[in-house]
Write a structure and sequence with these properties.
The complex is a heterodimer of chains A (484) and B (316).
Chain A lengths: L1 H12 L8 H9 L3 E5 L8 H10 L3 E4 L3 H14 L4 E4 L5 H9 L6 E4 L1 H4 L2 H10 L3 E4 L19 H8 L3 E6 L4 H11 L6 E5 L7 E7 L3 H14 L3 E6 L2 H13 L4 E4 L5 H13 L4 E5 L11 E6 L6 H8 L9 E7 L3 H10 L5 H9 L10 H10 L4 H27 L6 H9 L13 E3 L2 H10 L19 H8 L1
Parallel strand pairs in A: 1-6, 1-7, 2-4, 2-5, 3-4, 5-6, 8-13, 8-14, 9-11, 9-12, 10-11, 12-13
Helix pairs in contact in A: 2-3, 10-19, 14-17, 15-17
Chain B lengths: L1 H8 L6 H9 L4 H9 L14 H13 L4 E2 L5 E2 L21 H19 L12 H15 L3 H13 L3 H9 L11 H8 L3 H20 L19 H10 L4 H8 L3 H14 L19 H18 L7
Antiparallel strand pairs in B: 1-2
Helix pairs in contact in B: 2-3, 3-13, 5-6, 5-10, 8-10, 9-10, 11-13, 12-13, 13-14
The chains are: A alpha/beta (484), B mainly alpha (316).
The complex binds zinc ion.
Protein name (chain B): Helicase Helix-turn-helix domain-containing protein
Protein name (chain A): ATP-dependent DNA helicase, RecQ family protein
GO molecular function (chain A): 3'-5' DNA helicase activity; ATP binding; DNA binding; four-way junction helicase activity; hydrolase activity
Chain lengths: 484, 316
């Protein structure tokens, strides 16, 4: 069987070796067991369901929290020729959705949001056809103890009972022990029928740096120096859209090839950005913390946070985009005096008080035109629970958000002698190893020391970067010649 | 975008909510009538994705800036304004398939041909719409595959014949094997426009291309796009056929519709049909001043005829 698996890996994916954890997950699934897989970002999570699907030739349903994530996966499957894939979502018309459901035999992968999976017509079609494997992607979204909690995921337990898939795979990159327990409980995964495959969240090739500065302005002057010191692709994270725009414009003016990523991009603009980043026409992507950003580029050399993320999970998710090729990479946070108070404020904002929850559930119609964040939140929750359940859920979510923020604050403000990597491992690994801290592990530095340290990293040569980005707008004649 | 809205209101009397419905293409008789009588039919369904809060924000801004003034009848108006730097001239939303749909179909067809030309084996269609994928695939097998050079040549000559601005925006929004879409921002920076204006140029270019293809200027591409839709609904057409030799009341009875609906059908045909329509004795309407509702109908029918005879739709 081991030889069969490796032959399939070579034939369909062109790899000679599995990445850590992949083979254990696939083996468990092929033995008919459910699986909870906690694999760090960039470790080829999707291969763990693609290979079993190719071998068993049954329908795989993938539940995914975001349309953008689904589109990227469907596109990837189409480009790689790994079987017919379709995302059942609002991008398809009703007729199109029905034609998919009427001919499920034509599809190997069906991607859907949890809300879609609970629709009676979808349930009926899937029950009739049968589901070989049900994958819950970003499974930590099911736990109100995780900062990415999505209420719609709560319905998945019920859906699983209705669909009775042959196997269930819950995938996540970061899950604290408490969130893991939540995932298993809500999806009905028991020790008897489930294999847990878990890899440490540690990414030893990424140097973790926190760099306190005196002001936002100092960040702006430091950033170009950092980009000059980092030879290769860089992703910069912001927590405000306007700030991302300003910095992108400033960097462009300095001759740096910059792309902007945000959740409002159109489909073909996302595709274009990803393509240009891959081809090296863009060296730097400025992103607002867009969960599920479809950039899977192995040789990103650094992730820079211009503002702290809201949780350690977010931080891990973001820095996990660096150094996927295993070569040295850096995760840098520039921290101004106002950042920590802002982070703490953001953690309590947007939660409706109990009185508002009661008022809303008593007469939801009265709030039809209300578009405040608090009411928008309640509108999302209303589909899943009643007032008292929502009050409880929101209290838990709010507590989680504040705990997460506190954890993040601790990460940034702990004494310089504390190893940051150890803090991360302690938070996520069930049996964290003892980190052997060195200067290449993590640091809290001044800007000068940061720039100095970047010169000591053994950066790989990045041959793929192009100096000139092709002109984005071309004449009619040039463009037509290029198209055909 | 505020400039665009300002110019749409200038010299007209339209309620803001009606303008919103017109731009959204929400087909009710009163929206159609308001669009017709204000020469707004070409802009029908122009901005189907414009959100209501965003629209109202812009209206508030224009009122606040005193560019628009509110009349007692809740319409908004402004003195006739200078034409903006660029203005659509080919849009005709009522008789065309949705611009988004035309754009998706065309983009996918070009992507497919481009990838075939570059011998790229793996094809990830730019649009997820299965019906559009089927349509393009069917067209490719039937009309394009057998004569790819001819198909490409036809497309090139169509686009090359367009005004430079329209052609530039159109081709830069297409994707191919080695070709990325230019973002609205990139195009706007390149042309010195606002991104919204670039989107308008794109929509107008699509309309122009659609009309050229529907008019038979590129035979191989004709089967790709859905045919034009008649502006007068089938129901109103049926009514008009019956009215050729019977009264309004008889027609209402036969069709099991209210007489007021039959009168709306007449007005619809008068606005959107091929010919100007005047009251016919055979309709056997009550005499003038006998029924205020019927007199109101007569007033509208006459207004429609005047509007059409005075040169119809204002096309800047
Ligand atoms: Zn350390």
């Amino acid at each position: 069987m081991s030889d069969d698996l490796h032959a399939a890996l070579r034939q369909h994916f062109g790899f000679s070796e599995f990445r850590p954890g992949q083979e254990d997950v696939i083996r468990a699934l092929l033995q008919g067991r459910n699986c909870l897989a906690v694999l760090p970002t960039g470790q080829g999570k999707s291969l763990t369901y693609q290979l079993p699907t190719l071998l068993t030739k049954q329908l795989t349903v993938v539940v995914s929290p975001l349309i953008a994530l689904m589109i990227d996966q469907v596109k990837h499957l189409q480009e790689a020729n790994l079987g017919a894939a379709v995302a059942l979502n609002s991008e398809l018309t009703w007729d199109e959705q029905q034609s998919v459901l009427n001919r499920l035999d034509k599809w190997r992968y069906l991607f859907a949001a949890p809300e879609t999976l609970t629709r009676p017509d979808v349930v009926a079609a899937l029950q009739h056809h049968g589901v070989g494997l049900l994958v819950v992607d970003e499974a930590h979204c099911i736990s109100e103890w995780g900062p990415d909690f999505r209420p719609a995921f709560l319905q998945l337990g019920h859906v699983l009972q209705l669909l009775q898939p042959q196997r269930v795979l819950a995938l996540t990159a970061t899950a604290s022990p408490r969130v893991r327990r939540d995932i298993c409980r809500r999806l009905g995964l028991t020790a008897a029928n489930t294999t847990v495959v878990s890899r440490s969240v540690d990414r030893p090739n990424i140097w973790l740096d926190t760099c306190p500065v005196t002001s936002e302005k100092e960040k702006d002057t430091l950033l170009p120096k950092l980009l000059a010191a980092i030879p290769g692709r860089v992703i910069i994270y912001f927590n405000r859209k306007q700030r991302a725009n300003e910095v992108a414009i400033a960097l462009t003016a300095q001759g740096i090839a910059v792309g902007r990523y945000h959740s409002g991009l159109e489909r073909d603009e996302r595709r274009s950005l990803q393509h240009q980043f891959r081809e090296g026409y863009i060296r730097v992507v400025c992103a607002t913390n867009a969960f599920g950003m479809g950039i899977d580029q192995p040789n990103v050399r650094a992730v820079i946070h211009m503002a702290p993320p809201t949780s350690l999970e977010d931080y891990l998710q973001a820095i996990g985009r660096a150094g996927r090729d295993g070569a040295p990479a850096a995760a840098i946070t520039l921290l101004a005096p106002g950042d920590i108070p802002q982070l703490q404020q953001d953690a309590v904002r947007g939660f409706p008080p109990a009185s508002l929850i009661r008022a809303y559930f008593h007469r939801p119609a009265q709030f039809a035109k209300d578009e405040t964040p608090e009411i928008a939140l309640l509108k999302r929750y209303r589909a899943f629970a009643d007032a008292s359940a929502v009050t409880q859920l929101l209290a838990a979510t709010q507590q989680t958000r504040q705990t997460s923020a506190a954890q993040m604050v601790h990460f940034y403000t702990a004494p310089d002698t504390i190893c940051r990597r150890q803090l991360v491992l302690n938070a996520f690994d069930p049996e964290p190893r003892q980190v052997h801290h060195t200067a290449d592990c993590c640091a809290v530095t001044t800007p000068t020391a940061l720039l100095q340290h970047l010169t000591t990293l053994a950066w790989p040569a990045d041959a793929a970067l192009r100096v000139h980005r092709p002109e984005p707008v071309q004449s009619v004649a040039v463009r037509l010649a290029q198209l055909f | 975008m505020p400039t665009f809205l300002h110019y749409l209101f200038a010299g007209r009397h339209v309620r803001p909510v009606t303008m919103y419905h017109i731009l959204h293409g929400k087909r009710t008789f009163s929206n159609l009538y308001a669009a017709f009588i204000n020469d707004l039919l070409p802009f029908w369904g122009l901005l189907p994705h414009l959100s209501r809060p965003r629209y109202e924000e812009m209206i508030d801004y224009l009122v606040h800036q005193k560019l628009l003034t509110e009349a007692p009848d809740e319409t908004l108006t402004a003195p006739p304004a200078a034409l903006p730097a660029w203005w659509p001239t080919h849009v005709a939303g009522l008789t065309m398939p949705a611009y988004r749909e035309i754009g998706d179909i065309l983009t996918l067809a070009v992507q497919l041909i481009s990838q075939v030309q570059h011998q790229e084996r793996h094809f990830a269609p730019i649009t997820p719409h299965l019906l559009i994928q089927q349509r393009v695939k069917g067209w490719y097998e039937q009309a394009a595959k057998t004569d790819l050079p001819g198909t490409i040549a036809e497309f090139k000559s169509l686009v090359t014949a367009m005004p430079e601005l329209a052609g530039t925006v159109l081709v830069n929004r297409l994707v191919g094997a080695e070709t990325d879409v230019a973002s609205w921002q990139d195009l706007a920076a390149h042309l010195g426009f606002e991104p919204f204006q670039v989107q308008l140029v794109w929509i107008d270019a699509l309309a122009q291309l659609y009309q050229a293809i529907a008019g038979g200027q590129a035979a191989r591409w004709q089967g790709l796009l859905p045919p034009p839709t008649p502006a007068v609904t089938r129901s109103a057409q049926a009514t008009m056929q019956l009215l050729a030799d019977q009264s309004v009341d008889q027609t209402a009875q036969q069709r099991q519709l209210a007489a007021s609906t039959i009168r709306e059908h007449i007005l619809e045909a008068a606005m959107l049909g091929p010919a100007v329509i005047h009251e016919q004795p055979g309709w056997r309407l009550p005499p003038a001043k006998a029924d205020p509702v019927v007199d109101f109908f007569r007033g509208r029918l006459a207004a429609i005829a005047r509007q059409r005879q005075s040169g119809g739709v204002r096309l800047e």
